[in-house]
Amino acid sequence: MPNLVLSTRAIQVINTSINLFHHRGFHTVGIDRIVKESNIPKATFYNYFHSKERFIEICLTVQKERLKEKVVSIAECTSHASARDKLKELYFLHTDVEGLYYLLFKAIFETKLTYSKAYQVAIKYRTWLINEIYSQLIKLKTDVTFQDAKLFLYMIEGAIIQLLDSNMADEREKVLDCFLNF
Fold first, then answer.
1. What is the largest CA-CA distance in the chain?
2. What are the residue boundaries of the structural domains of the chain, listed by start?
């Protein structure tokens, strides 16, 4: 979906829907709920987005681009932040269940069978993120592999699952410290 250009009103609908999808899921939020919460006619929704599948793909693309901006900002930070500090920031950014990554993570489970293009948006982000993680890990230890970067991502996703199951805020940092002391 190159060069996605959206009106201010369309962005408002997307922001409202991202929040709905984040808290209620992709399958439980229908078009009727979206238009009601966004205060737009159903015809306007279909004029902007054409279908629920395309709409979910657009929502995930917008979310992905917002998240990428934050990741690039962390990675390219010119202050005296070390690679270890940048990895910690990436970890906490991605393990925040109220944050930007949670919707993409959720999409992996909820969209694969019914919204394949939306699913691909989430998968492509993960691939991109693994490369960003790798570029920071290689600064810590020269013999790291892409498997190590994947392991870091799995650690992020495992922390999300644990945070959804219980209150493990303290444990989240301990897991990270253990990994970074490899």
1. 56
2. 8-180
